[in-house]
Design a protein that fits this description.
This protein is α/β, with parallel strands linked by helices. It is built from 14 helices and 16 strands.
Length: about 450
């Protein structure tokens, strides 16, 4: 690996070569080393290669297939793992069986009692691709459940333009989100303690979630809404309602997903949680995977080469800084729930941009000053905050603030494999001053009524 020696990587990583060697040796020689990563690894046009490099590191050092080792991508929201397992990925059936695999399509056609020709064999569109499809006139309607793309999508003004262009937009949520502002129909849904179901976290831990409260007003459990809609569309769904429907759906899942085939609803009710793979009833579950082999034709893992790929958009004379977006402790994701909490919003009430003190000094700004951040797609004004943890030459902003929606600035360029946008890198310029951001009113967080 002459082309990737610590000395050559030092100026690229910003980490001394000797530190790279020391950390690599500590990782490789420990009894158990574990890698956990978040969106800072994946939200790049080379995010897949970033993950492949971490996988290769674990493989070549043997830090996999034993307790205290392995790779753990930290999921961005609650139950993303469970949703992915259950097939909420546009190119996959449940258990990561590809829609363009004829054998998988036959299995699911049989399980669902439909002709296999009725199941589309073409991979679907990812979120950013859907937005592009709307603008191109290929997508006419959307049903959005528990998501807020008007705030979370890159190049947010472009995303909002697309959502407004739809012939029909249905939003199922518990609050009037920025996306729901644009909806033709709003379906009042249920919050976490108001519904029964299962949750799976990043280490394959399947847990039961029990309804503790009834949904208020006209709100209903999400599954009941979906079942009613399916029946109105002519589907003969017979799952029942409420908690019984959740049990029936889970039973269907385990009969189409080999990884959880051994986990019955009764077992979850009794034991509360089981770790998959659990392929037969009575199996204890599998806390450590890949102990003896990998699920490949040869039983061996495969190294995939990766090269250094620059970001889609690099700083230049007009836009000399790098914008990084993410979350902050007090406000979750787009803030659709946490900014309705008076306690949390009193801790972090205003949109802030974190800059290195040297960058603030060069700008002539003091903490608390208004600054305007601009990219090739838009601009927002918010308050400056000095932060030694922010790398020199970068700006960090959380994407939860409607009055300073930072995703108006971000780049919608996609990783060619995972199709995830490059949220973690785009070129911006920062100037002193700008109009004071006005906090949005959320109406006291009252539950929505049907429109």
């Amino acid at each position: 690996m002459k082309g990737y020696s610590p000395e050559l990587m030092e100026p690229i990583c910003g980490v001394p070569a000797e530190t790279i060697r020391e950390v690599a040796r500590l990782y490789a020689t420990s009894r158990g080393s574990m890698i956990l990563w978040g969106m800072g690894i994946s939200q790049h046009i080379h995010g897949t290669d970033n993950a492949r490099c971490l996988i290769a590191l674990a493989l070549m050092t043997g830090q996999i297939g034993k307790p205290g080792s392995g790779l753990h991508p930290l999921r961005g929201q609650n139950n993303v793992q469970g949703a992915s397992d259950a097939g909420l990925i546009p190119m996959m059936y449940p258990d990561y069986q590809r829609v363009d695999n004829p054998q998988a399509r036959e299995r699911f056609a049989k399980a669902w009692g439909v002709p296999s020709a009725q199941l589309d064999d073409k991979p679907g569109l990812t979120v950013v691709e859907v937005i592009r499809g709307i603008i191109a006139g290929q997508v006419k309607g959307m049903y959005i459940m528990g998501e807020n793309p008007a705030m979370s999508d890159p190049d947010a003004d472009h995303a909002r333009e697309a959502l407004a262009k739809l012939d029909m937009l249905v939003v199922q949520d518990i609050f009037l989100t920025e996306t729901a502002y644009l909806a033709d129909v709003i379906l009042p849904a249920s919050a976490f303690p108001e519904k029964t179901g299962s949750f799976t976290n990043t280490d394959r831990y399947v847990q039961i979630g029990r309804r503790a409260l009834n949904p208020p007003g006209q709100a209903r459990q999400d599954l009941d809404i979906i079942i009613d809609l399916a029946r109105q569309l002519g589907l003969n769904w017979s799952y029942g309602t409420g908690d019984a429907a959740a049990a029936a759906v889970f039973d269907e899942m385990r009969h189409t997903m080999p990884s959880i085939a051994g986990i019955t609803w009764k077992r979850l009710e009794a034991e509360h949680s089981v770790t998959y793979p659990c392929e037969k009833e009575g199996d204890p579950g599998t806390p450590v995977v890949f102990v003896d082999s990998f699920p490949t034709p040869t039983g061996k893992a495969r190294f995939v080469p990766a090269d250094i790929i620059p970001a889609d958009e690099r700083p230049d004379a007009d836009y000399p800084l790098v914008l990084i977006t993410g979350r902050q402790l007090e406000h979750w994701h787009t803030g659709s729930m946490t900014r309705r909490s008076g306690v949390l919003d009193s801790i972090e009430p205003d949109p802030v941009a974190s800059l290195h003190p040297l960058d603030m000094a060069a700008l002539g700004a003091k903490p608390g000053d208004l600054i305007t951040i601009a990219s090739r797609r838009g601009k927002v004004t918010l308050y400056a905050r000095a932060d030694d943890a922010s790398p020199h030459g970068s700006v960090f902003v959380a994407f939860c603030y409607y009055e300073a929606a930072i995703n108006k600035l971000t780049n919608s360029a996609l990783d060619p494999v995972a199709k995830i946008p490059e949220f973690k890198y785009c070129a911006v310029r920062v100037t002193l001053g700008g109009p004071k951001p006005v906090q949005a009113s959320y109406g006291g967080g009252q539950i929505l009524a049907t429109v």
